[in-house]
Fold this sequence. Notes:
single chain; mainly alpha; 2 helices; elongated
Amino acid sequence: MTLELSLTLFIYISFPVLLFRFMYYFSKMLYRGRQQGVAIITYKTLFNPFNFLLFPSLLNPQGLLYRRCCILALLLLVLIYLVIILIT
């Protein structure tokens, strides 16, 4: 009973924090991390801005750092959910 309550509290705290971290670094990646001459919505990203996470060649060195932070936030979120599902 205590374990489930503590895991629930943990997910209620970690989900918004990790989601905000992802959105913050994703927006920085879109506006400051793109290569010169690459638009946000273009055929290079198949008209989907989330494809900047898949195509690192469209990012400058600062954008690669932001991409790593985005992917780390997503991985932590998935790992937290997997651990909670496997424990309970």
